[in-house]
Amino acid sequence: VFSENKESLEGKGIIRSVFDPCCGTGGMLTTGKEWVKNNIDNKILLNLQGQELNPHTYSICKSDMLISGEDPDNIRLGSSLSNDHFEGKKFDYMITNPPFGVSWKSEKEFVIQESKNPNGRFSVGTPRSSDGSLLFLQHMISKMKVEGSRIGVVFNGSPCFTGESGSGESEIRKWILKNDLLECIVRLPNDLFFNTPITTYIWLVNNKKKDLRKNKIQLIDGSNLFKLRRKPLGDKRKELLDEHINEILSTYLSFEPNDISKIYNNDEFLYTKCTIERPLIENNVKVKLKNGKLKPDSKLRDSENVPFGKSIEDFFDTEILPHRPDSWIDSTKDSIGCEINFNKCFYTKPVVLKEKEITKQLLELEKLSEGILVNLLKD
Fold first, then answer.
1. Distant-in-sequence, close-in-space partners of 148: CB < 8 Å, separation ≥ 6
2. What is the pLDDT of residues 243-270, one digit of tens each?
3. Cβ-based neighbours of 227, under 8 Å, separated by 6 or more
4. What's the rounded Cα separation, in Å, for the pair 18 and 27?
5. pTM for the complete prediction?
6. Distance of alpha carbon 81 from alpha carbon 140, whole angstroms
7. In angstroms, rounded to a whole number, what is the distance separating the alpha carbons of residues 359 and 121?
8. Are residues 183 and 210 in contact, defined by beta-carbon separation less than 8 angstroms?
9. Which among 349, 337, 333 is positioned nearest to 160, based on CA atoms?
10. Where would I find the H helices in 40-132?
């Protein structure tokens, strides 16, 4: 979050604000402050502010701020979604690790009501009530400064792809891409945290991208950069060493494609969801409507996601029609969706060996095993 625009953190009398809407005990805030002091400028004044729902962790965070010389009144108690204690405030930097897959049903009435306000935080859409991750992201985006703010948030995989076209999740992702806010997503290894084995992702959001990053998204696959712990700590079986962190950071800063870095245009993550219809057949006869058109059979209805910009007609002619010659597309039901499929982006086609190559390798293995057996008998 702090590394790419170091110049904005250097100089005399620099004051910057850092906000965490799910601050817990304050670890993200204090670690962020330490990194800036140690790596950029130890004279900069960072104004740390946060909000936490849990009274126990809130108290620890408030105490930590007091001990470390920060203003403890900058830490507030309550839900950031339904009781925003920083309403109307904007921040230079925002970093957070919101709860994964936590329901927001208890705040649903408030969130839905605000979503009806065109100027509200959640006017773009709301995700399913079982996971409020994207609500926290919208909350932080609403606190970005016009002159530029940067957000770093730790998610699970759900915000990348959950929800088909027309769903709240898809609409939120589409809005983020349309406004060119998403800069980079980093996939981390699984088994990295004490209390969950799931794979996590770091989203970097920036409303003042550098020119070379505009209308582009960088994906970094750091899932294979880790060291196995000698002894597991809860679900934590892996850890990131400095060399792994530095490789991820240098990959991000260089903004070049390689084995672990892919760069895409924003619209490459969009798709058109097309509805494929097939005729209703009764007594071996295709049923027709009053207007003469074939009546679709709802039980045979299917859908296909066509990459944005690709001809839907060509896709239908080559991918659908040869297998379902009686089908057609109902274009009145087309909708634009958005998903970020990491596995698809980093998929590598497996190498398929020819029969001669396989036979050769088997013969070599057979010869090797015979040699080992002979040596064992000699011994």
1. 92, 206, 207, 208
2. 999 999 999 999 999 999 999 999 999 9
3. 238, 239, 240, 241, 244
4. 13
5. 0.87
6. 10
7. 63
8. no
9. 337
10. 55-67, 108-115
